[in-house]
Amino acid sequence: MTEALLQVEGLTKRFGGVIASDAITIDVKRGELHAIIGPNGAGKTTLIGQLTGEITPNTGSVRFDGSDITALPTYRRSMLGLARSFQITSLFPDFSVIDNVALAAQAHDGHSFRFWADAREQPELREAAMIALKRVGLADRANLLVAKLSHGEHRQLEIAMALATKPRMLLLDEPMAGMGPDESSRMVAMLKQLKQELTILLIEHDMEAVFALADRITVLVYGKVIASGTPDEIRANAEVIQAYLGERDAEAANG
């Protein structure tokens, strides 16, 4: 687990006078779950947007499995095995659960949509969709309309859609956002299973989940990396405690 699958070197992104990413350098090793944490406005989502190709950096590079992908469009990165789930879900609520996942598999494999009918008729797409649903614990919900799922199940479904694209690495942006304790616990259990199979980059505000899941953690503040290390190293880092963890503890203490 020593070789890096993803390497980010000197990544910088400016929006006018605001530096959203300030010469970020990180690596994600094969088989690890690497978490990115930081206060609101730290630049976490801007970073993941650059990794997926939705945002173009001003300077710096992104390498995936040894290849420079800095200039590749999103779909090319997806074909290489990078899959993202979003902070806000993007689902088809009036379609069934399995239809949503089959559509994701269909789009990734380059099939014609043809009014989306083919996804229902192609057994290989349905089979791939069901395998993905089993991996996230939604197989028994396959034929329900997405609109009838809970918020937590929506997040599980979105990850199933990412899994249907046969990724080598998952980029997860706040998968536990808006969840209650029970839903968060189920998500943590699911991610513990997935980290045995996939490399994962996780952006998450839930510190309990981060420390339960992460092999390594990188801390961003104002677009800059201030620390990167094991969970124990991050817990003990004075700069992190002052800039982020201590701030959260103070907020909790003040109610």
Outline of the structure:
This protein is an alpha/beta fold. The protein has ten helices and ten strands.
Structure, described:
The protein is α/β, with parallel strands linked by helices and 255 residues long. It folds into 2 domains: 169 residues, P-loop containing nucleotide triphosphate hydrolases (Rossmann fold), CATH 3.40.50.300; 76 residues, no CATH class. The protein is 40% helix and 25% strand. The chain has 10 helices and 10 strands. The strands form 2 sheets. It has a 6-stranded mixed sheet with strand order 6-7-8-3-9-10, with helices on both faces. It has a 4-stranded antiparallel sheet with strand order 2-1-4-5, covered by helices on one side. Strand 7, helix 7 and strand 8 form a beta-alpha-beta unit. About 2% of the residues have low confidence.
Structural class from helices and strands?
alpha/beta
Query: Which superfamily, in CATH terms, is the homologous superfamily of the largest domain?
Result: P-loop containing nucleotide triphosphate hydrolases
Average pLDDT taken over every residue: 88
Residue share in β-strands = 15-25%
Order of helices and strands: EEEHEEHEHHHHEHEHEEHH
Strand segment count: 10
CATH architecture of the largest domain: 3-Layer(aba) Sandwich
Helix content: 40-55%
The CATH topology of the largest domain turns out to be Rossmann fold
Number of individual domains: 2
Termini separation: 41 Å
Give the overall silhouette: globular
Radius of gyration using CA atoms only = 18 Å
List the helices and strands and how they pair.
Layout: E1 4-15, E2 18-29, E3 33-37, H1 44-52, E4 59-64, E5 67-68, H2 74-80, E6 82-85, H3 97-109, H4 117-121, H5 123-136, H6 151-163, E7 169-173, H7 181-194, E8 199-203, H8 207-213, E9 216-221, E10 224-229, H9 231-235, H10 238-253
Parallel strand pairs: 3-8, 3-9, 6-7, 7-8
Antiparallel strand pairs: 1-2, 1-4, 4-5, 9-10
